[in-house]
Amino acid sequence: MSAKMLIITGGSRGIGSATIERFQADGFSVVNLSRTPTALTGVTQINVDMSDIGWANQGAAKLHDAVLTRMPSGQGRIVVVHNAGLLEKDSVGTVTAESFANVMQVNVIAPAQLNQILLPIMVPGSAIVYVGSTLSEKAVANSCSYVTSKHAMVGLMRATCQDLIGTGIHTNCVCPGFTDTEMLRAHVGGDQGILDSIASGVTFNRLIQPKEMAEAIYVAATQPVFNGAVMHANLGQIER
């Protein structure tokens, strides 16, 4: 049993997988909620599809069982990391209502649903960390639904901070810059030339590694002096 637990969404790859490893190194037990199981050992896997608005009806009981099984009397510190995300190529003139709703469900509504499941069993010292994006506070073309959802995630984090006054639970939104993940590579069609061009817009002239983002998430989760903060972790982007 462990007195501290990480509950993460989308932990099967990329930033999520690296985050699991970082918290495990500090003695956290881990529950991962995702469609694809994680390959990491020592993780309780709950298979859910968060694009389905009804996922919580099936997932809540399994999640409570997992927490109570892995933590003494269910009274340990819980860190929730909302990492699962959906990125679609679309624009304000082409995005369909169905696609827009799907992105908002995964990126914004599902985190709110997960909060409602877990808050009744979260004790002082717990934390909720949202994984936003550089696009949480600015925009690029052809990412309309994603940009909108990541802006909304910042609003959800700020609302979380205010609604949890006096609980001893803190929250932040970590906004990764361009990170070398499967999602980014898929978004650019695996084109190395595009990846190199993206890296040229960073002051360090490289992409961020998932382990670096995991460390930023760990700090956001374990340092309550950061509360209600939008924490940009992007190696410094060149303004053009």
UniProtKB/TrEMBL annotation:
CDD domains (UniProt xref): SDR_c
Oxidoreductase found in the keyword field: yes
PROSITE patterns reported in the protein's UniProt record: ADH_SHORT
EC top class named in words: oxidoreductase
Keyword Oxidoreductase: yes
Keyword annotations: Oxidoreductase
SUPFAM superfamilies listed in its UniProt record: NAD(P)-binding Rossmann-fold domains
Gene3D superfamilies linked to this entry: NAD(P)-binding Rossmann-like Domain
InterPro entries in the record: NAD(P)-bd_dom_sf, Sc_DH/Rdtase_CS, SDR_DHRS6-like, SDR_fam
PANTHER family attached to this UniProt entry: DIHYDROANTICAPSIN 7-DEHYDROGENASE
Designated name of the protein: SDR family NAD(P)-dependent oxidoreductase
Origin species: Simiduia curdlanivorans
